[in-house]
Each structure stands twice: as structure tokens, then as C-alpha cells.
Design a protein that fits this description.
Strand order of the largest sheet: 2-1-3-8-7-4-5-6
Number of helices: 11
Mean pLDDT: 98
Number of strands: 8
Distance between the termini: 30 Å
Shape: globular
Radius of gyration: 19 Å
Length: 387
């Protein structure tokens, strides 16, 4: 399906490092790229470098005084709590501006490639920092790279962009930055705000004429329920909206092993979602697709395999789930992490995907979440909320 694919990468992207013990450890992207190399995934893509986003590019979504505050913190790592830096979630560190601007620059490089037509798809697994707000860091995120990329595309003349966020946490920063802009359709599937940070993402948060879409799934939701919700919400909205470009955020913290959340997806369920988004990119946005990483805190068993599957899917050459992870990568995991690596690219699941064609069950918590979202936004898009 894919004609030309760019993977944006620079080893300096691992400098986004909040220190020992912080859940967002840069080793997760290091291990991802190592696994993708070992399995030959990168051989089917063009790997390109990136430069830091400029202040003007960051200012497409962030306040100038916030950027200056981050720069001051960056000099010596002295906290600035007003800017959200120096908390347990967002520790201050020397070099924070440069590291954060490089991640934003990587997503901008992906956006430029797709907008200018030098690539059909592009991916930045180090990106997806979707919680950062206009004037404050939040939820491990300093600069909101997906929002910077979207704002840059709008400035180039794009008139309809869809953003789909499958991280377990609500994509609150991206939603907030485009909440009143009908040119941007934001769709977030996440664990219910009743049980998880950031406490937003209710179906009633609908933006400008239904431009914000939130699917708040119950804790414990697994592959089948999650994929049922995805199928009931995302394809009909993307088909109706017909975006020029699809931007996606692929936090893999919806996995059952993730230590910070309470959904129960498998690697195989997540891979199924990547396949669906790839098909939808070709069906609804002419194949123009920008994918980013996001959350994911099981650093060995989940993140590297999930995002290697993502890169492979974006490349148009998905990996057979039974593929071994490879001896060199397994040795790297033992050396770097001191733990046993996963041996294959699957959790051994085959998710059964169901839809609403047979109706919905009001006694089922997932179906209630689906219908709450459809009732909230489908009429604004001229769609019937009933199955």
C-alpha cells in the first residue's frame, strides 16, 4: 500500500531524558530502533535526520514567554514551576529546550515530507508528546510536537487535518490547541477520565461543531472491546471528514503490561489498530499519513515490539507476528536492561473484531462508551448515531 516512507531519526532524540527512575525512559526508543534495524524494517524505508524546531515554529502553538522559560531552565536545569518544569512528572533538566525542540523538529520533518510529496507516509517514534499545553509542560511533555506539525501544515495551506490518538491517556494538549478550529478533527480513544490522568476526554467535550471526539473506555477494556469502539467511531468520522492529511499518535500504554494504566490490550490488538489506520489513510486522505509514538512505559516487553510493528506497517511491509526478535537485539536487552527479552513479535493473541451491525448492548460498558460518543458528535457530522 505504501509508495515512499520516511522514518525520522537522530540518536540525539534520546537526549529527551527526565533522569533515572522516570517512566519516560529514552531507552524505549533506542531499543525500538535497534529492533527495527535487526528485523530489516528500516531497510524498506528512507531514514532521514532532523533539526530542532525554531522558536517561530514552536510559537505556532506555544506562547513565546513559555518558550523563553523553557530556554532558561535549559541553561542549568533550575526548575520553573510556573512553566510546569520541576515537578515529578516533568523534572527540570539542563538541555531540556534543545531536546524537546529536536523532537518537535522530527515531527516537522515528517510533516514536511508528506506535505511536499517527498514521502507518502512518515513516522517519528520519538514524538507524540500530546499533553503539552500552550504555556506549560504537562504529563511528561514539554513541546507538543503533533500540534506543532499540525499547525505548520495549516500554515502551509492545509484546510482539513484529522488527528487520531490511540494512547491510553486522553490527547488533551492537541485537543485544547485546536478545540475551536473546525479544520482539525481530533479523535482520542483512551481510558476513562474517571480512572486515569489527565482527567479529561469526556464525550461531551465536542469542540467546534463536533471537531473534538472522545471515546472514554472503561478500565479493563481489552482487544475486542477497544477494536469494537475504534471501528464504531473512527472509520465513519474519517470517511465523512475526508482529511487532506491523517496524523496519528500511537502511545502503546494501552497494553495490559503497562504499569501506569488499566486497559488490557495485547501487542496483537495494537498491531490490528495500526493496520486499520493505514487502510484509512489510503481510503480517506489519499495516503498522506504522519505517525508518531507517544506513551508506553513497559520498556522491554511492549514498546520496542509495538513501534517496530508500527514502522513496518507504515512501510507497507508488516511483520509476521511469529517472527523472532533476533539474537543481537535479545543480547542488547540483556546488556542494557538486565532482563529477559521477548522472543517473538507477538503476544499470541488473535483478536476477534465485532461491529455494531447486530445492535449494541446497553448493559455493556464498552457499548455505553461507544454510544455516548456517537450521540455526542455524530449528528454534527451528519451521521446517524444509531447502528
Amino acid at each position: 500500500m505504501s509508495e515512499s516512507v520516511r522514518v525520522v531519526w537522530d540518536d540525539a532524540l534520546t537526549a529527551y531524558d527526565f533522569g533515572p527512575g522516570h517512566p519516560l525512559a529514552p531507552v524505549r526508543v533506542e531499543l525500538t530502533m535497534a529492533l527495527a534495524r535487526e528485523l530489516g524494517v528500516l531497510d524498506r524505508t528512507e531514514v532521514v535526520g532532523c533539526t530542532p524546531a525554531t522558536d517561530d515554529e514552536l510559537a505556532l502553538v506555544h506562547k513565546r514567554d513559555y518558550i523563553e522559560a523553557v530556554k532558561r531552565v535549559s541553561v542549568d536545569g533550575r526548575p520553573d514551576l510556573a512553566a510546569g518544569l520541576g515537578t515529578s512528572d516533568n523534572p527540570a533538566f539542563a538541555g531540556v529546550h534543545e531536546a524537546s525542540a529536536l523532537i518537535a523538529g522530527a515531527s516537522l520533518a515528517a510533516a514536511r515530507s508528506v506535505w511536499e510529496g517527498t514521502a507518502e507516509h512518515a513516522v517519528n517514534v520519538a514524538g507524540g508528546l500530546h499533553h503539552a499545553m500552550a504555556n506549560t509542560a504537562s504529563g511528561f511533555c514539554v513541546y507538543n510536537d503533533p500540534a506543532v506539525a499540525i499547525a505548520w501544515l495549516l500554515a502551509q495551506g492545509a484546510s482539513k487535518i484529522a488527528y487520531v490518538d490511540v494512547d491510553v491517556h486522553h490527547g488533551d494538549g492537541v485537543q485544547a490547541l485546536f478545540y475551536d478550529d473546525p479544520r482539525v478533527l481530533t479523535i482520542s480513544l483512551h481510558e476513562s477520565p474517571r480512572t486515569l490522568f489527565p482527567g479529561t476526554g469526556w464525550p461531551e467535550e465536542t469542540g467546534a461543531d463536533g471537531s473534538a471526539v472522545n471515546v472514554a473506555l472503561p478500565a479493563g477494556c481489552g482487544d475486542e472491546g477497544w477494536l469494537r469502539a475504534f471501528g464504531a467511531i473512527v472509520p465513519p468520522l474519517l470517511r465523512e471528514f475526508e482529511p487532506q492529511i491523517l496524523v496519528t499518535q500511537h502511545g502503546c500504554d494501552s497494553h495490559a503490561l503497562d504499569p501506569l494504566a488499566h486497559l488490557m490490550l495485547s501487542l496483537d490488538g495494537q498491531r490490528t489498530a495500526y493496520e486499520a489506520l493505514h487502510r484509512l489513510a489510503h481510503e480517506t486522505s489519499g495516503g498522506r499519513w504522519i505517525a508518531t509514538g507517544g506513551g508506553g512505559y513497559e520498556l522491554v516487553q511492549v514498546v520496542p515490539r509495538a513501534w517496530t510493528h508500527l514502522i513496518a506497517e507504515v512501510s507497507g511491509h508488516p511483520i509476521d507476528p511469529s517472527t523472532p526478535t533476533g539474537p543481537a537485539w535479545q543480547a542488547l536487552v540483556r546488556e542494557r536492561m538486565g532482563e529477559a527479552p521477548p522472543l517473538t513479535m507477538t503476544d499470541g493473541r488473535t483478536p476477534q473484531v465485532s461491529d455494531l451491525s447486530g445492535g449494541y448492548d446497553p448493559a455493556d460498558a464498552v457499548d455505553r462508551a461507544i454510544m455516548a460518543t456517537r450521540n455526542a458528535v455524530f449528528p454534527s457530522h451528519g451521521l446517524d448515531p444509531l447502528p
